[in-house]
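queue> pop job 88
queue> type: inverse folding (structure -> sequence)
queue> payload:
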């Protein structure tokens, strides 16, 4: 009997098709990850749809307060959905989620908010600034230009609170309203100077102007020069470097006004052995009067290259330099050294004496440039600058450089 039952069971299973699987086997071979993922996605979609309906109803119920900019919580919520792209992107996201009507309410609220609410500098980490900057980005240039002077001043203050440089609308508005911008910039820079400290990072006001356009730097240079004489010199070395670069590269302040101050400050910092700051003043002097800068070096350290003066010159060549000008803007900026073949010749001879090519570092792998690398690069910069002049003075200077050992 047992054999008969066993035979029946074996014969029954032998009759199943080869690709036949039982229901539990079929479930077992399913991709459970996909099933769970689809289930969770469906649940999330339902929840998201519910939130859209709930939020949309809330916005419509309070449409008057929202459109008049009296609901900063709602506006901050919208900004938080697109924190890296203020302006039209915020409204576009609202349009995608809630439709044109609610997006229009938000657009009106953003535009109204900044007009009704001022801001203090600095406030770039505050949602108030982000709400105001979103509203300003939604305005056309003609709308901004036709505002009262007080509102334009407020707009510029918001612009200084933008996280990554001036917003796109600001350079054009500065062109139309330069006087108001200078007033705001002077207030901002005064606050940066009076509150500056020996920190590693630059202040926002100096940074915004230094990395803007050459036209904005030119506009700011003269007021900044006056500010340094009245409010004092920034303690923050980065701020000082930016201030001196803005002033020296601009044509707004004459070399005769600048040169005595730059010489005096260079000598004062050398006496105090504050060479990192001294190089900043010397750099500015080279930009406005390169021959006077070289004479100042010789008068300070002597014409004979002692080990100490040679070491200092190498340190000067190996300094970190601020590079904030675009290539197309450099031709518009003041740089007396670029056209001074005689001084370039002096610098080339000094560079080859103090740091000859035999001392150049050799790197086989990735590296972070140090003083030696920067000194090597600076020596090449002097030589290339002289060669790029391409005039008779440059050719004579190159001939002298090749014949004279020192």
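queue> result:
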């Amino acid at each position: 009997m047992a054999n008969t039952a066993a035979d029946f069971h074996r014969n029954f299973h032998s009759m199943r098709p080869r690709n036949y699987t039982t229901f539990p086997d079929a479930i077992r071979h399913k991709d459970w990850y996909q099933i769970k993922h689809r289930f969770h996605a469906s649940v999330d979609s339902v929840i998201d749809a519910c939130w859209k309906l709930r939020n949309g109803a809330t916005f419509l119920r309070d449409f008057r307060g929202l459109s008049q900019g009296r609901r900063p919580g709602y506006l901050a919520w919208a900004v938080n959905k697109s924190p890296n792209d203020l302006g039209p992107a915020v409204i576009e996201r609202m349009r995608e989620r809630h439709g044109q009507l609610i997006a229009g309410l938000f657009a009106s609220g953003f535009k109204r908010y900044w007009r009704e609410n001022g801001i203090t500098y600095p406030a770039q980490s505050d949602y108030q600034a982000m709400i105001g900057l979103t509203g300003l980005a939604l305005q056309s240039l003609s709308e901004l230009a036709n505002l009262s002077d007080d509102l334009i001043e407020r707009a510029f203050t918001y612009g200084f609170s933008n996280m990554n440089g001036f917003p796109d609308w600001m350079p054009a508005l500065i062109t139309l309203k330069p006087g108001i911008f200078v007033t705001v910039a002077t207030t901002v820079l005064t606050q940066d100077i009076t509150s500056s400290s020996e920190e590693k990072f630059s202040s926002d006001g100096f940074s915004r102007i230094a990395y803007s356009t050459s036209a904005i730097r030119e506009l700011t240079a003269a007021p900044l020069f006056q500010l340094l004489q009245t409010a004092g010199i920034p303690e923050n070395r980065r701020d000082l470097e930016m201030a001196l670069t803005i002033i020296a590269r601009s044509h707004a302040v004459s070399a005769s006004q600048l040169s005595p101050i730059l010489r005096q400050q260079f000598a004062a910092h050398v006496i105090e052995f504050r060479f990192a700051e001294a190089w900043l003043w010397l750099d500015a002097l080279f930009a406005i009067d390169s021959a006077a800068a070289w004479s100042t070096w010789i008068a300070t350290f002597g014409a004979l290259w002692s080990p100490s003066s040679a070491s200092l010159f190498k340190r000067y060549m190996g300094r970190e330099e601020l590079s904030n000008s675009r290539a197309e803007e450099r031709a518009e900026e003041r740089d007396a050294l670029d056209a001074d073949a005689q001084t370039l010749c002096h610098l080339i001879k000094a560079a080859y004496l103090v740091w000859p090519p035999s001392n150049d570092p050799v790197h086989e792998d990735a590296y972070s440039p140090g003083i030696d690398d920067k000194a090597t690069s600076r020596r090449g910069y002097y030589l290339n600058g002289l060669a790029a002049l391409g005039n008779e003075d440059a050719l004579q200077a190159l001939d002298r450089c090749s014949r004279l050992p020192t």
